[in-house]
C-alpha cells in the first residue's frame, strides 16, 4: 500500500528546485507537476539564463509534463509552486487543464491566483483550477526575500567598488 505525499512534502521539493534557480542567478521559484503521486515535470525560473521571458518555473514544469504524457492536456494533475502564479502562468494552467494548484508565497504585484486577480477561477473561462494557498508560505517567502536582500547587497557593493 502506498501513501500519498502531503502538500508540504511536494512543496519542499519545489523549494529545492527554487534553489537551482538561485544558483543560476534567477529569482528562486520552483515548480513540480504531479499526477497520482508521480512527478511528471519539474521546473525553476530560467528566464535570464535562457533569454526567454516565458521560462518561468511553472512553464518549465508544464512543458516537461506535456512531453512526458505526450499530451497538452494535464487532466487530474497538481502543480506545486513556491510563488503564486502570474497571469501568463495562470493562463497556461487553465489551458492545460491542470486540476489543482498549490502555492507557497502570495505575490502582491503579479499574483493571478487571487492576489491581484484570479484567472485560475475566472467563471467566464472554460476551465477553473482548484487553489490551495499558503503551503509553507513562510519558507517560500523567506527564500525570495533572502535572494533580493543578497541582490541589493551585491548592487550596493558594486556601486561602492566603482566609486572607490
UniProtKB/TrEMBL annotation:
Cite the CDD domains for this sequence.
nucleoside_deaminase
Catalytic center residues: 58
Look at the named UniProt entry and state the broad enzyme category this protein falls under.
hydrolase
The CMP/dCMP-type deaminase domain, residue ranges: 5-118
Please list the residues that bind Zn(2+).
Answer: 56, 86, 89
Cofactor binding, per record: Binds 1 zinc ion per subunit.
Which protein family is named in the record?
Answer: Belongs to the cytidine and deoxycytidylate deaminase family. ADAT2 subfamily.
Output this protein's name. tRNA-specific adenosine deaminase
